[in-house]
Amino acid sequence: VAVAKPNSIAIRIAIVAADEADLVATRRWGNEWDIAAAVLVAGEAGAGVSDATGAALAFNQRDPRAYGLLVAAPGIHAAAVARLGGSPPA
Fold first, then answer.
1. Among candidate residues 82, 69, 81, the one with its CA nearest the CA of residue 43
2. Interval 23-78: pLDDT, tens
3. Dist CA 51 CA 44 (whole Å)
C-alpha cells in the first residue's frame, strides 16, 4: 500500500498503528523525542517496534538518539528487520 509521504515520522508511525500502512522504516539516526509517544501508541496497537537492527528502543538514555526505526504490522516485523538489516554506520 502506498501512502502519501507526510513530513512527520510520528505521523507515519501513527498510520501503521491505525492499520492504514504495513510498515515505516528508516536507517537514519533520530531523536527519541520525535518518536516516543507514537512508538507507545504503535506498540499498544500491536505493531512490532524496534530500531533498524531489530533491537528494542531504549528511552531516557544519556544519548537520546536511536539508529533508525522500524514499525511494522504484526507478523511482518521479523521479515522487515531481515530486509532492512545492517549495523549503524561507524
1. 69
2. 999 988 889 999 999 999 999 999 999 999 999 999 999 999 988 899 999 899 99
3. 17
Torsion of CA 14, 17, 23, 25, to 10 degrees: 50
At 5, list the grid cell. Answer: 509521504
CATH tag, 9-84: 3.40.190.80
In the chain, what are the domain boundaries? 9-84
Rounded Cα distance between 61 and 52, Å, is 18
Closest CA to 73 of 8, 25, 26: 25
Strand partners of residue 50 = 70
Task: Decide the pairing of beta strands 48-50 and 23-31.
Answer: unpaired
**What is the spatial distance between Cα 8 and Cα 52, in angstroms, rounded to a whole number?**
18
pTM (2 d.p.): 0.86
